[in-house]
Amino acid sequence: MQEIEGIEFFDRLYDLLTDHKKQLFSKLVKERTRRISWLADNLYHEQNASAIIRSADCFGFSEIYVLEDKYRYKVNEEIAMGAQKWVRPKALHAENGKYESALKIIKSKGYRIIAASPHASGNTLEDLDLSTPLCIALGSERHGLHPEIIQQADGFVMIPMVGFTESLNVSVTAGILMYRLRKRLIEENIPWQLTPEQEKEQLFEWALKTVPNAQKMIKRWFEEKAKNS
C-alpha cells in the first residue's frame, strides 16, 4: 500500500463520518480503478485541467499524474464541481526541464506509458492493449506532448479525425478516452478494481477531505501515541 501519513488511524477517522457518507463511499470505492492512470503534461488552461479531473471522477479513475514544467496545475472549482476532493492529482516536476525522473516514477508503479497523439501512428481505442496497467499521457494545449514523453512512450493511442480540424481539445480527448477505456475494461473482464489495501487507502483519503479538522485530529492522535509509547 502506498504510504499515507496517518492511515493507521483509519478506523477512528472513518467512524466520524455519517452513515450516509459511509454507505456512499463504500459503494463508490467499488467503482474506482487504478488499472489505467492519466498523465497531464504541463497544461496551461485551468479550465482544461479542471475538466479532466471532473471526467476522471465521473468515470471512476483514481490517479492523475500532473507534470509541471512551465505552468502550474490549477483547478477551477466552478468547472471541477468538487471533483478535486475525490480525485487527487499527484504532482511531478520536471528537473531542469528534463522529464526523465518523473517518467521513471510512473513506470516504477508498473504502468506502461501510452502517449495520446493524433499525429503519431498508434492504436485506436478499440485495439489498444489493456493486458497491463497503462498511464495515458495527454499533451498541453500549446505544444502537445513533450518530446521526452514521445521518446519514452511504450506505445501510442489516437482518436481518428475526419474533419478539417486536426485535433480535439485536450479535455475532450480525455473524456472520450476515459469513457471508452473504462467500458472496455468492464466488457473484456480485465481485472480493474482496487485491491483491499487500495480501497482502504482511497477511503482514508476521502475521509480526510470530509471530516472537519481531520488533519488536526490525526496530528493530535500522533502526539498521544508518542506520549504513551
Could you walk me through the main structural features you see in this protein, from its secondary elements to its overall organization?
The chain has 229 residues and is α/β, with parallel strands linked by helices. It folds into two domains: 33-193, 3-Layer(aba) Sandwich (Alpha/beta knot); 195-229. It contains nine helices and six strands. The chain has helices at 10-14, 19-28, 46-58, 77-80, 100-108, 147-152, 170-187, 196-210, 214-228, and strands at residues 36-41, 63-68, 88-93, 112-116, 134-138, 155-157. The protein has a six-stranded parallel beta sheet with strand order 3-2-1-5-4-6. It is globular and about 65 Å long. The two termini are 25 Å apart.
Beta-strand segment tally: 6
Query: What is the count of distinct domains?
Result: 2
Q: What is the third-level CATH name, the topology of the largest domain?
A: Alpha/beta knot
Q: Structural class of the helices, strands and pairings?
A: alpha/beta
Which CATH first-tier class of the largest domain would you pick? Alpha Beta
Shape: globular
Beta-strand portion reads: 5-15%
Radius of gyration: 19 Å
Q: Helical region count?
A: 9
| Alpha carbon gap, first and last residue | 25 Å
Q: What is the CATH superfamily classification of the largest domain?
A: SPOUT methyltransferase, trefoil knot domain
Question: Which segments are poorly predicted (pLDDT under 50) over 5 or more consecutive residues?
Answer: none
Helix content: 40-55%
CATH architecture type of the largest domain? 3-Layer(aba) Sandwich
Q: How is the biggest beta sheet arranged? A: 6 strands, parallel
